[in-house]
Amino acid sequence: MLHDPNRVYVFDTTLRDGEQVPGCQLTTPEKIDIARELEILGVDIIEAGFPVSSPGDFMSVVEISKAVKEPTVCALTRANRMDIDVAVESLKYAKHPRIHTGIGSSDMHIKHKFNSTREEILERAVEAVKYAKKSVEDIEFYAEDAGRADVVYLAQMIEAVIAAGATVVNIPDTNGYCLPDQYGAKIKYLKENVKNIDKAIISVHCHNDLGLATANSIAGLQNGARQIEGTINGIGERAGNTAIEEVVMILKTHATLGLHTNINSRNFYEMSRMISSQMRMPVQPNKAIVGGNAFAHSSGIHQDGFLKNRENYEIIRPEDVGFPSASIVLTARSGRHALKYHLERLGHKLDKDELYDAYKRFLTLADVKLDINDDDLQQLMAFKLVKN
Ligand code: KIV
Ligand code: ZN
Q1: How far is it, in rounded angstroms, from Cα 173 to Cα 153?
Q2: Among 248, 251, 210, residue whose Cα is nearest residue 230
Q3: In this prediction, what percent of the chain has a pLDDT beyond 70?
Q4: Which residue ranges does the record assign to the Pyruvate carboxyltransferase domain (predicted)?
């Protein structure tokens, strides 16, 4: 089934889990534009929507299925026939269709969401997979709230749905509850104890309630998962989903993990800006990989080290994620080297004394003006010429 055991498949759910966020709703044409960009980015699977939820979501899955060629197009369902029928219909133009069906797996969900029993839920899970399999070959099963599920029961459920035809088994940490070692151990247990696990790909789908979504996803991959689910900018329910750009860049930066994806990481910055503006969701400046300050150096010590050798303070090259360039920000915390660098960039070559003098005037200005731009520097130098 898997040709390359080290290949990690990237499943993007920006248009489904991401779009559930209040205020982030998109029109079908907007979703088509995003899906085309996701195809260029190189994602393997696009979760295009939850077709039974609304006519708009249904149409979006239909139109995205027509618009993209390479990625698998996936539609979400609950474990019931009506949801599955509607999803099958919505995927009829997809070159590579996938149904994503599933049900709760934790006792919390079984008792307090479904008012049911483990046995009954297991039956419903198997029935849903078998039913979906009659229409679509590629079936992904999600065991909702797997992060809090009893691992022995979870293993039983996963074995049964693979036997029923699931090609991918998704182990969501729906509530972002797990610690990385707990989540990793859960994936390892499934890998070692589910007899037919080699017939399916294990997928990780982590939420960020405790800020651990990326760490948990990596722990899952280290323990045998080979599909990662997430969104661009980490948008999603509550505190969001795993940020795809973070996982991909972790795998690239830590080549010793031996895992790789098909993602063109140089498109991340563009993609991030597109999602942010279309979904009206600003990216926090300190967001890893794509935040406005992700490659901005502002303290004197860092700037000095960066100017001596950028690798002193740069583990990812900005151009590798499509970021315009690294920046040396001038503030009252900046040092002489940073000022010299910018003045030379603007054509001012200063000797030691001139630089000393310019730096004193710079600090006076920087104490009142929070960040100093090129115009301020030109004025600083013009002031010096007038004075002389
Ligand atoms: O978080 C979750 O459990 C989900 C499932 C529907 C896959 O989004
Ligand atoms: Zn989710």
Answers
A1: 16
A2: 248
A3: 98
A4: 8-269
Token couple for 216: 């948990």
For residue 76, the ligand 1 atom closest to its alpha carbon is: 6
92 and 217 in a single domain? The answer is yes
Same domain, 94 and 24: yes
**pLDDT per residue over 229-266, tens digit each?**
999 999 999 999 999 999 999 999 999 999 999 999 99
Instruction: Indicate whether 178 and 309 sit together in one domain.
Output: no
Q: In this model, does residue 275 exceed pLDDT 60?
A: yes
How many other C-beta atoms lie within 10 A of the C-beta of residue 75?
33
Model confidence at 386, pLDDT cuts 50, 70, 90, reads low
Ligand 2 is an ion; its neighbours by CB within 5 Å are 17
Q: Pick the atom of ligand 1 nearest to 142's CA.
A: 7
Which residue's C-alpha comes closest to atom 5 of ligand 1?
Answer: 144
Q: Which residues contact 4 (CB under 8 A, 6 or more apart)?
A: none
Nearest Cα residue to 1 out of 132, 133, 162:
162
218 in Cβ contact with 180 (< 8 Å): yes
- DSSP reduced 3-state for 316: coil
Q: What is the CATH number of the domain that holds 74?
A: 3.20.20.70
Measuring from each residue's beta carbon to the nearest atom of ligand 1, which residues come in under 6 Å?
Answer: 17, 142, 144, 170, 172, 174, 205, 207
Q: Does one domain contain both 260 and 300?
A: no
Ligand located closest to 50 CA = 1
| pTM exceeds cut of 0.70 | yes
Is position 66 within any domain? yes
Q: 345 is in which domain, residue-wise?
A: 296-387
Nearest partner of 245 among 222, 280, 273, 278, judged by Cα: 273
Residue type, 136: V
Q: Which ligand is nearest to the CA of 102?
A: 1
Do 11 and 227 touch, CB atoms closer than 8 A? yes
Q: How far does residue 16's CA lie from ligand 2's centre (Å)?
A: 9
**For the chain, first and last CA: distance in Å?**
76
